[in-house]
Here is the input.
Amino acid sequence: MFNQFGSTAETLSKASAAVLRIGTDAHLYDDPEDVNIAPLLDSKFESEKCEALKRLLALIAQGFDVSNFFPQVVKNVASQSSEVKKLVYLYLLHYAEKRPNEALLSINYFQKDLGDPNPLVRAWALRTMAGIRLHVIAPLALSAVGKCARDPAVYVRKCAANALPKLHDLRLEEHAPAIEELVGILLNDHSPGVVGAAAAAFTSICPNNFSLIGKNYKKLCQILPDVEEWGQILLIGTLLRYVVARHGLVRESLMLSLHGLESNGFYEKDGLVGDKKDGDKSDSFDANLVSLVSKCYIEGPDEYLSLSNGVDTVAASFDSKETTSVGDNEDVKILLQCTSPLLWSNNSAVVLAAAGVQWIMAPLEDVKKIVKPLLFLLRSSTASKYVVLCNILVFAKAVPSLFAPHFEDFFICSSDAYQVKAHKLEMLSLIATTSSISSILREFEDYIKDPDRRFAADTVAAIGLCAKRLPEIPTACLNGLLALVRQESFAGDLELVDGEAGVLVQAVMSIQTIIERDPLSHEKVIVQLFRCLDSVKVAAARATIIWMVGVYCSLGHIIPRMLTTITKYLAWSFKSEASETKLQILNTAAKVLISAEVEDFQMLKKIVLYVLELGECDLNYDVRDRTRFLKKMLSYKLACHEPTEDSVASQENIAEHVVEYVFGRKLKPFSPLNLHNRFYLPGSLSQIVLHAAPGYEPLPKPCSFVVEEHDQLSDSGRQREAMSGLNGSQESSETVDEDGSSEYDSESYNGSDFSSDGDERNDANDAADPLIQFSDIAVSTDQEELRSKRALDLWLDEESSTSNQTPSALDRNQSSYAKISIGDIGSRVKPKSYTLLDPGNGNGVKIDYTFLSEVSTVSPLHVCVEVLFQNSSTEPIVEVSLEDEEAMNVSDSAEQTLVGKANASYNNVPTLIPMEELSCLEPGQSAKRLIQVRFHHHLLPMRLSLHYNGKKVPVKLRPDLGYLVKPFSITIEEFLSTESRLPGMFEYTRRCTFTDHIKDTRMENGKDKFLTICESITLKVLSNSNLHLVSVDLPVASTLEDATGLRLRFSSKILSSEIPLLITITVQGKCTEDLNLTVKINCEETVFGLNLLNRIANFMVETSSSAI
Here is the structure.
């Protein structure tokens, strides 16, 4: 290629690779020793040190030993460059165990870096200290972890959680309680990233210390959706184990469905269990298998199966004290609610973990919610398809009807691996029903023709299982299987054809499986198999047919008359048979002789004697031993001239009883219980490999964790305190820097004379109330602690405040709030005005609009908008009106997608209530009109048409999120109660800066500074949104210049759904300086709440056009 340019494919490939390496450090791996490293490590330039360290790490990656550079690298730990520090830490982690003495020299630097203002440096230092696995520095590392567990930076606290398992691996028994205490502190963190790492530490350090989980259970459930995906897996398992240990299994769940199945009416549950009259109960709900699964989950398969004697062993029912109910247990209900959304997670392991919780704990009628997420995972995730199928198989074995309607999802794809194909075949045989079996059998017909003959053999076996489960279809299956046995290809030497022998063997075994259900009705099928015996050359298949000769030798009227002929044929072919076939011929000969009729006895005895003589001379010692055993056992039969009718219990005919017992009785079919019925927790590695993998633990014994009464009271108090201070602690621990954008940032607006009526009903009461009222709402101790520890240097130099606080300080932390009464605020509210049409685009027509707080008289979905028309031209304007353009034209597909089905129930409500037409608008004249609008979506503008002077101008009326809600008057107690029910995923926070109070001239005239700040914030909020002011609270302990802790609460309801929406604004900063506001919204409508939060944060930053 390109020879005319002197280039080849190889040279072009090298050139392309070189271009891709430009600007990277990949060249260090080519020849990392091409530069003398030692001088670079001693250089005074940070860039050269960085180059040398990168080369050392490249050598380490290639397997070279560069530990001789350890002293030179260690001294660079004092470098001021963060990049050099990071590389030095990586080097030290690799060689610390080889050079422990030199590593100890760097401990002082690590401790110094733990006080660095840069959180990344603190995290690197902690990670390196914990990674140096030396018992000498373990106490220092534990102290560092304890300090970093309370660090203000989230990343540092997360590194502290990751360091705890490393310290635990050092087997520090004397420090085990301290390590577990740190795990509890990190589990109580408000950052999802820290909680995920703490859950991993809990799993590896103290998985059975459920007291740590009980203290923070509700908060862990609420924060679960926000934790990183791999942390969610561990946290889900931990919460499930806690609930089982604390409350036991759920009585209404599938795991306990065996006990009280009839009384609870589970057979009538839709989609789970079929009608009992159909006689198909075992196919829809295998109660014995469900009991086995539940026992395996609790006790472990090895322990449970060792105590069981067989498949029919039914475990004793659970004690009623070890069970609970979903309706009565709040912990179980919260766990099921917080794991339900995770069924649609992007991570397949999270989906399996959440499905496991629903499978074990959910009521029986709710178990079916796991079906569609698992099927979606099966279709979308190729990498995890096998793992998902292994878990689905367990679910389908217990409740086949769960997946029966979705049988098409288990049809084989050509790209599936063999293991996936085998599991799908097993699934199809499990969930086949009378309505779906015809489609499944048509699929099986194609699978039998597959070039992969091992897969074809598995398909034949699946046909037999389907026929065994469904008694309506054996005839059709038997005809097809017999045709398969009679194929001409089986007449040759199939041992040389790869996989064909397996197909034939499975066909014969499937026929045998079908016959076992009702042998008498399939007598002719057995006869056809006997006639095919000469054409079947595969040893395993011949052995199976010969075994059937002995088992059914006395069945019906046709088979006994054929025994002499068949036995002669077996004796004739004995010499040329394989060893396994010879063994079956010997067994069959014994069975035939025992059940022989009088007229055939002499002939059969001669044939059996001939076969026994051949067996005694066989080259295989197993055949010889079997022959001697049978000859001795049948000696009494071979010595008599006719079969005996009755046997007398005497010493002479004991052998006859033994023979009758061994060869005459009907044996029960063997069920490989220990191989196929080993169940482990869903989503675990053990369920895939079918044995207990390292680290696997079954669920704890139900109700094995008992909480003392005083512990329960203290735990509930701590949970309430944590929930009340969730916002303050979270925002103090982690700085959120989000830049939101709004459609209104570029809109022009001006003040207007319109006033809000939302708070007029409270004016009279506010005027009569005192300015300040005391409230019994206690301040959060965490907020006071974080306020007093605002400076990072203080945190770095001092110990935890909880250990040094005096009783008086603790009393001050629990001081009360003062309730501030603002008074007449509604009359000063000035709603914001937006431009609908400017004079440049409207030929002199200017239109402004303002959202009003008035309630629509037409529908609760409508918003009142006041439109101001102004004629800036020199000519009069006639016939001015606004019409809904979307009522005449079809909305574009993008908007229709956003609207979706949310407004389907409001299609009969008009989008726009027509305004009164303006007949004439003279030059310089203005007029106001009121329109009522129903927006399709809180982000989509409404398309309107402006008509005037016979013209049509399209305009867009943009919604204001602040007016898509309505005031919701509640008390402060109701506000806090509602807020406590909407934490975690229903809570959103944002920080912003507020400066309007600084420009207020009344601040300089001696007016109360706190009251000025409260009025400024309230007016800003009410001028941009339609809310109800619930309360304004100020900590009594605040100084005269410090507004930190000031809190304003607003309440409202979303117009379209009547869902409550709560807003809390917390102030931080000095009265005369810029204030930092933390805006928190609690709302079940996640998208609406987040958008409104950004809207509020944006207009709070905007500067007002005039002073108050």
